[in-house]
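User: Fold this, then the next.

Assistant: Folding the first:
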Amino acid sequence: MATVRGHAEKSNKNVRAMPVGADWVSGKGTHFRVWAPAKASVDVVVQNAEGRHAPYPLRQERSVYFSGLVSGVAPGDLYSFRLDAGPDLYPDPASRFQPQGPHGPSQVIDPNAFHWTDFGWKGCRLLGQVIYEMHIGTFTPEGTWRAAITQLPELARLGVSVLEIMPVADFPGDFGWGYDGVDMFAPTRLYGHPDDFRAFVDAAHALELAVILDVVYNHLGPDGNYLKAFSPDYFTDRYETEWGEPINFDGELSAPVREFFLSNARYWIEEFHIDGLRLDATQAIFDSSPDHIIKAIARTVREAARGRDTIIIAENEPQRTVFARPVGSGGYGLDGLWNDDFHHSAVVAMTGHNEAYYTDHTGSPQEFISSAKYGYLFQGQWYSWQNQNRGTPSFGLPPSAFVNFIENHDQIANSGRGMRVHQLTSPGRYRSMVALMLLGPGTPMLFQGQEFQSSSPFFYFAHHKPELAELVSEGRKDFLRQFPSLATPEMRDRLPEPADRWTFVRSKLDPREREVNGGACALHRDLIQIRREDLAFSVGEYGKIDGAVIAPEAFLLRFFGEEHGDRLLLVNFGRDLHLKSIPDPLTAPPLGRSWRL
């Protein structure tokens, strides 16, 4: 028979792993705690094996939290919250698992039941790494954590060292990218049980692969978000985003909201042994408080890792380098930033098309030289596509702080037809660009399947109920109208429907293509090996690289390795060059030495 006991705020800290949610206390039951200001009562409603519901009132604390220890409630049991004795039942805002999806009851999870084997794992830092972006639902035909584990040895043999997992916070429907998550602490049931996620991380660490998780702290999805039922103060109308209501990080009653999201960052590090985070669309995370929430997230992640090395990367469209500068210098203390500038120049150089947000890029050799030396190309000068200045100075940041890529989930899908970049250019240009990315001074990132030139497209897919699916479809088409080549009625009619299951299925990788396209795998593997073994490429110190244009579509980069020796990287995107000499001092070998291929 279950009973409930209230606990004062002080004692909560002694029994809880997280400040909110359901914590199983061995031999005693499960302790529940939820923030619900302005609510007169909160009951936890437990569903037993027969499907019957038993409500237990929680005690209101002074700080408008409700909490209580309910005996007899164990891992695997389902529960919901009832507010003000109303007829509706709500999932726990900090649910660790939603086995029936966001609209169903939450499940009590014992995070300590999994047997870890990664005790010797020390984590990793960003310098010297090669990142691999993955979407678990399409990485294998099965689309599960367990299936993904079987492919990890292939990634280890390839030479990548950091797996960046697209968001896994649970969302409604049968498939999606994950950026419309609504249960921040609940790994989606679509990929398996939370312990399957832990098994994935454990297996990755055994292969010396770090795992960082893409998290969305700028908005929640449009369906299944019940935070407002507990408090409208989770959100604010003082700012605007293009995806939904911004999170309240600096307004009235923002302290519990900040605690909620900081706890989420700590949760992934502590309970899943994640090695860091990739923060989505940080330009839509607003905070005017003295301790910016991004800085607080970075601090929380480092503390939660307890001495393990961690990696924190931000996506920031305005290219504000303050995110990657040390806290002692007024920065936020992150390790890296996604570099859209490199991608945009690369796509223009490979395809010749520079419409929409590619408008300000020419793909010229000088752009790649400047990118190698300084990271971002736009650091405060005029940006015609947005009709405003863009970016901030990057001087002094290490080259590794800039994550370079020629494919990612957004950019492949934004081509409309979901085509991979190797399908949009010539083989020679593609190989040259892969070499530039993997040997360049920035931190390279591959998108799943890129290493074997996957024939699978990667579309935008999101499974929603019909009325919302229609709105999402129209919104997607409106977004792609910025590309004149996709704005015609004929092209709009051919765009894949996000809610169509076939759109999702077609985006799945075929692992057999690793063997079919073995040459592409060998190219990536060899280049990554050179990067790893040749310190002139991997050290990546600021100011240790220079470059020169040697033809309209060709250039060279010189890496000054000092005791490691210098290196020249020659890249040609154009016609054959028959050069008897190159009148540039960067091609002269160090005194008393000579170049060798």
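Now the next one, as you asked:
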Amino acid sequence: MTGTYYWGRRNLCSQQISYHSLRDGQPHPLPQPRDRRYQLKDLTGLANRVMFPRIPDGTNVQFRPIQTFGLEGSWKTSLYRAITKSAIQRYGSSKVNAVVSISMMELARAIDSRPIQLLFLDDSGVNNQSAPEKVITEKVIIRRRLESKRRNGLIILNFAVQDYFLLDKKLRSTLYVEFLKSAPTNLSDLNALTRIIGDDAITHLKTCQREWLIKSNYAALSSPVVRVLDQVGYYQYEYIEAADSQLRQLTTSYNQRSKERERQAKVKKYRKMLESKQFSKSRDLRKKQQIKYAVEGFRLGLSKTQIKGILGIGDEKVNLAWLQYQEESE
């Protein structure tokens, strides 16, 4: 980041936040007359208590769905890192499984035997949910997955959205906590959201949005509006660099395993398809068949190396098949 960099600092005694800019290596105080944060209640502690209750006893698996709304680039992922850090501080790193994915079923496959499952469904994953019934069904699958591994536990599922009303009303009514990091740009959505969270919260979001987009004051993004049950206030957290977060290590290793599973599934499907094929004894006809089946492999998303190894063909035939596949795609 170039230019002036801003950050927020909380005084734990006064519960006030002072902003400073870093110019020429020296901190300088910033004016705060337009800061509407003080008209909202600090609900950071309440939100954490609701999100992170005591681990249930007996044979009880609790589900705590939450939502994070914000435009692209509004630090939704950094908020999730902060939530993950709070969960680790609350329960201990050995009890928390934190996963980010764009697929509900990938999140379900990532469930392990730890009591706290912190799942983050990224923007594109939420957008791909075509019907609320599908999301509800996949939530049940996630819950059953954990119940098959242990008797008790807590699942915190965070829906990240760029459209506040993207989630169906039935799903929004089950949310325990909602984080709002920006105001809707659509006037109809803005008016509807104002009736839900109030004028002060909308003003706070608009102020933070201007600070972020116009003045590059990224510290404003670290105090989103939060709606906990029937209360509306702000949630204060510190920005966490990805390189300093355990979340990055967790998600990187999981994404690698996920890609490997996808690759193995494609190869298995391709091999199964080839089992039903018979190659001609004629050399010319067999070459045409091999090129045809190589094109089928490209359609499945296999690489040239994979196709060469499975079909046992050389570079010439693979390249011809690739050219044919490119022509079809155009």
